[in-house]
Design a protein that fits this description.
Two copies of one chain form a homodimer. Helix content of chain A is about 30%, strand content about 15%. Chain A is built from seven helices and eleven strands. Chains A, B: This is Enhancer of mRNA-decapping protein 3.
Amino acid sequence: ENILEAKPVVYRQITVPQPGAKEYSTDSGLVVPSISYELHKRLLTMAESYGLSLDRRLEMTGVCASQMALTLLGGPNRLTPKNVHQRPTVALLCGPHVQGAQGISCGRHLANHEVEVILFLPNFVKMLEAITSELTLFSKTGGKQVSSVKDLPDTPVDLVINCLDSHENTFLRDQPWYRAATDWANQNRAPVLSIDPPVNGQEQAVEAKWSLSLGLPLALPERAGRVYLCDIGLPRHVFQEVGIKYRSPFGCKFVIPLHSA
Amino acid sequence: ENILEAKPVVYRQITVPQPGAKEYSTDSGLVVPSISYELHKRLLTMAESYGLSLDRRLEMTGVCASQMALTLLGGPNRLTPKNVHQRPTVALLCGPHVQGAQGISCGRHLANHEVEVILFLPNFVKMLEAITSELTLFSKTGGKQVSSVKDLPDTPVDLVINCLDSHENTFLRDQPWYRAATDWANQNRAPVLSIDPPVNGQEQAVEAKWSLSLGLPLALPERAGRVYLCDIGLPRHVFQEVGIKYRSPFGCKFVIPLHSA
C-alpha cells in the first residue's frame, strides 16, 4: 500500500479546451475549471444524444438538489417522526423554462420527504412540455402551487429555492411576475439556494447564499454565494467528446462544495 | 415547541389494503408493511401513468442504489484522490430484464465515481429497450462489459451486485448463463448486494448480505440478508390511488435500513 500511495496525487484531473474565467477547487484540492455556457450546453446536448434525456436529467437533478436542500434544512435533526408537527417550509420560485422544471422536480422530492413546499410559477397559456410533466407529478404530492406572489407566505420561510432565471431568455426579467417574485425573495428573510443560475452579464436579481451548478460550474459572480457542484450522471467519454478531459471530482458524493481557487 | 412535541408520535403511518406477509420497522420505529408483488406492480404502473416513466425510475434507482453501494465500499475513506490507485472493484451481474437495466444504471453511476465496474450481461439477439439504452450510456463510462462468466475476475472483488432475477420470468433460472453466473457469485468471496430481488417461492440462488427494495418492500426471505428501502420518488397520492395510505418513512434520507418487526 505504501508503495502505491507514494505515487504523486494529480490535482488537475479536469482540463477544458478554453481556459475558463474562473477555477474552483474541491475540499481535497482537486481543480475544477469553470466552462462557458456554450460549452455546457454542448455537453448536455452530447449527453442527450446518447440517451441521457432531459427527463432523466430532471429526475437526477431533482434528487441531488433535494438532498442538498434537506441538509441545508437541518437534515436528520429536523426531519424525524418526532417533529412532524414542525415541518420546514420551502418557497420554490420557478420560471417557465428548463431551470424552472429542475426546480419543480426538486420540489417534488422535497414534498415527498414531508417538507412543506410552496411552488410559485407564473401563469402561461402554453407551457414547456418539461414544465407540464413536472407539474403533473408535483400535483400528486402534498405540495401547494401558486401563480401569484400575493399567495406566497408573509412570514419568513426556512429556505427559498430560486429557479427564476434561464440561461437564455433574459427578457423574462422585465416581466411583472419576475420583478414581484424577486422582490418577495429579497424581502423574505430566508436564505436562498439558486439551482443552475446563469452568468449572463447582468446582476443576479436575488442574492443567493448557495448556488448549485450542474456537471461543471460556470464562472459564477459573487452574488451566487457559496458554489456547490451537482453530479448529473454524465459518463467520462461524453465530456471527452466535447473536448474536456475529465475525471470525477465527486469521490463518493453527488453534491460537493467548490472553493474559488 | 413543547406543546407541539407533546402530541403523540404515530408510528403506523403507512397502511396497506391487504396485510402483508411481513412487517418491517425503520431505525426510528416507523412501521413499514410489506406488499405483494402484484400491488407493487400496480403502484409502478400508476406512477408511470402520471409521467414517472421507467427511464426516470431507472435514473433515480441507479443514483440511490449507487449511493448505497458507495457507502458499502467504504465511502469517503475509500474514494479519495489519494488512493486513486486502489480503486474498488464491483462485479455487476445482470439479467435481460428491468431488474438488469436497474443494475446497469447503478453500474454507470458507480463507474462515474471511479469505481472499477465489470458488468456481466448474457448475449441475446434482441434486448429489452431499457437494457439497450442503459448499455449505450454504460459504454461511455470506463466500465467493462462481458457476456461470459469466464471473463469475470478469478479473485475476490470488493462487492457483487446481483440483478440476475426478474419478478416474472423465473424460467431464466434454468438457462446455462444464469447457473454459471450464480455459481461464480457463490464462489467469489465478495459480499453481495441484491437490487430489487423477487419473492417467488423458489430459493434465491445467491445469498445476499444486503437487499435493496424499491418504494415499499416485498416480504423477502432470510437469504435476502439485511433489507434496505430505496426512495424511488413516488408522490403520496400515487400510493393513495392504489389503496395505500402513505407517509414517507425516509426522513432526510433516500435509502434507509429496515428491521423485521
